[in-house]
Amino acid sequence: MPAVSAAPAVPVPAPPRTLGAGLLLTVLVVAFESMAVGTVLPRVADELRGLALYGWASSAFLLSSLFGAVLGGVLGDRRGLMWSAGFSLAVFAAGLLVGGLAPTMTVFVLGRLIQGLGAGGLGALPFAVITTRYPEAQRARMLAAVSSAWLLPALVGPLIASLIADLWSWRTVFWGLVPVLALVAPLCLWPLRGPAPRVGGRAESQTALLWPALGLAASAGALVEGLRSPGLLGGGLVALGAAGTALTARRLFPVGLLRFAGGLPTALAVRGLAAFALLGTNSFLPLALNELRGLSLTAAGWVLSLGGATWTLGSWVQAQVERRLGAESRPLRVRVGLGLMATGLLTSALAVLGGLPLWAVYPAWVLACLGMGVGYNSNSLYALAAADPGESGRLSGQLANIEVLCVAVAAGVGGALIARLPLERAFTVAFGVTLLAAVLGWLAAGRLRRG
């Protein structure tokens, strides 16, 4: 995710209300697609006979969105926000059509890759629009509105998607959003007309990040494919992907990330490990519930929707603790939150794999997401406080990119295991990997006090 443009020196007039409506509706569509797709993926893989590519359905979207966010920033800086928004909307819509009409799993993965390229640009768009098109007095309110626009899809998106798939088809989840985008696009694009901004230092900085972002996405993709491929080819791709990821990450993340250097590097590492653990599990949990325990897509959608609600509750709880105990409690809140998350993940794994009754997955996933809400947001506040003055925009990009990278790799690892092992063993190992990440995140959080 690119850095946010600096606020203009001259007063900014209030934009037309259509811009706010178009922006929020665009966020709603992207958020719904992002939250809903995991629920219907088991049916997609079954109908298209593409279980071997299951992990790529998530990884392709995430990795291309990482590059799409930087590309959207470059277009916005050099051609104007209308061009950036129009390009991202068109690409996202094209990806929805390709995915919804896909005759094979390979084409479906291609559609997900195209969707991610557009979604990355649309995900970064609100911050650029709010900074450059809204007066100072309205920015906080619009940022809150954008955050709230993610709330409803997180709560009901998985459930609605599963109901649509049961009543009609999983394809409706994708191509059914295209007419909505066609109605929303003019509301968002028309108020963004205007001359292209002058190219300055920020545009040059964004362009400098374009190739590292592409290299990181390609390297992580090679790593994911290497894990899925057997033999020497797979080993070579893993080595190449790991080396490329390490080299390109040095341009995008602070020094000391991999060794958990105190302060900001540790905060970023904790965020990545937490995302790997919970969101990585989220990528294969519906399939595991469906294949191992016979749970319907609607019932699996209820699990994910309950998780979205309690993640929100956890965020509210940590905000109340922050207000009462202050910033000094952040490192402790991170550790407590990640401890709850690890406990919830372990219990969820036991419920899915048969060690506990199936009903236990509901409170277990609620506990995991509650802990994530507490620990994740507390860690974000810690990271923001640890950043140097004037670096908040760059930090926002680092926070988003480490999350996308880790979730993409986690989904790829889960998909590789599903492709290469019997399903029960594959899910057992996948749960073990994500649990290990949760424990490492909890241990790494102990170094936050040194920042």
From TrEMBL:
GO terms for cellular component: plasma membrane
Residues in Major facilitator superfamily (MFS) profile domain copies: 19-449
One annotated GO molecular function: transmembrane transporter activity
Keywords from the named record: Membrane, Transmembrane, Transmembrane helix
Cell compartment(s), UniProt: Membrane
Residues spanning the membrane: 21-41, 53-74, 81-102, 108-130, 142-161, 173-192, 256-279, 299-317, 338-359, 365-387, 399-419, 425-445
Entry superkingdom: Bacteria
Keyword Magnesium carried by entry: no
Pfam families the UniProt entry points to: MFS_1
Coarse class of the protein's main subcellular location: membrane
Topological relation to the membrane, as annotated: Multi-pass membrane protein
Organism from which the protein derives: Deinococcus terrestris
Name listed for the protein in its UniProt record: MFS transporter
